[in-house]
Structure formats: C-alpha cells, structure tokens
Amino acid sequence: MILVNIMNISLSNMGFVVFLRGGTDTDKRTLPIFIGATEAQAIALHLEHVTVPRPLTHDLLKTVMDNLECRMKRVEICALRENTFFAKLILEWNGVESEIDARPSDAIALALRCTAPIYVAEEVMEAAGVILDETTQGGAGSNAEPPSHRLAPAEALKQKLAKAVVEERYEDAAALRDELKKLSQTN
Prior knowledge:
The protein has helices spanning 37-47, 57-67, 104-114, 122-128, 153-166, 170-186, and strands spanning 2-12, 15-22, 29-35, 70-81, 84-93, 96-102, 118-120, 130-131. With 187 residues, the protein is an alpha+beta fold. The relative contact order is 0.18.
C-alpha cells in the first residue's frame, strides 16, 4: 500500500476530480479519481476549514463513530474494476478491526474528518496513476476548484448551486438548478 495525500480537487469538463499523490519524493505518481459534486464539496469544505451551520453526512458519521468510541485506522483504495475504484474503511471498535466497503470519495471525506491516513494499493496506482507536472495540478498547495470566473457558464452555475445547497438556501438552489437546465437544453 502507498500512503497518499490529497494534492488537489479540480473541476474538469467531466466532473470533479480528486488527485491523490504518493507521500514520498521518489514516487511522483498521482491518482485522479472522479467524484460526485457533493463529495467534492465535503472534501473541499474540510480542506478549506469552512464551518457549515449544520453537520454534513460525513460530519454526522464521525460524530456517531466518536460517540461509539469507534476509531478509523485508515482508508484503503484497494481495487479498480471496470473503471470503478473501490475503497475500504478500516475501523477499530472494542479492540476488533473491521473492514467496511465504501466509495473512495466518501472514504476520503471521512478520513479527513477522522485524521486517518489514506492508502492506495500498488496495483491500483500502477493501473491508473499518472505523472503530472505542478502546473497541471494547479500547484502543490491548491485544494479547491478553480475560481468561477475561469469556468464555463454551466460549471460556474454548478458551483453556485453546490454552495447554495450547503448554505441551505434551497430556493436559490432551485432557481440555479432551473437556470442550469435551461442552459443545457440550449446546447
């Protein structure tokens, strides 16, 4: 297993991507994983230290784990089958270790909240890892989506929609959703 760090979350023309990079200077491979907007937002909010008025799903799960005195030991991105990544949460409760199947995006969001390490299986990194230069990744310290002024109109609307949902401004979110639908129908 390869210990990885989150290098970047980016918005591409195919959706959100989280970039995981090996934790050593000798391994320059980066694993890009496409993730959903909700999970990308959960990861980005945590990386940017943004406090939301009410707990998100990953925050809720961490609170439940804390109350049950269940500890997350690590996350393992363990397989790649038919272009789908698979992950496991490795938990410890009352001295017993358990493995729970999870989507990598949820596993990463929860690992951040639990300050648990994230590992990628060597065979997964070998199959899907790429070598990116710093400009492709948006710089080593970049953890958020590109600013909306650089995005296509639809992508900017998607970002505004995601923010409205997190801030629980559902009327604004509905209006943005409708605007996004109109825009996609004209293309």
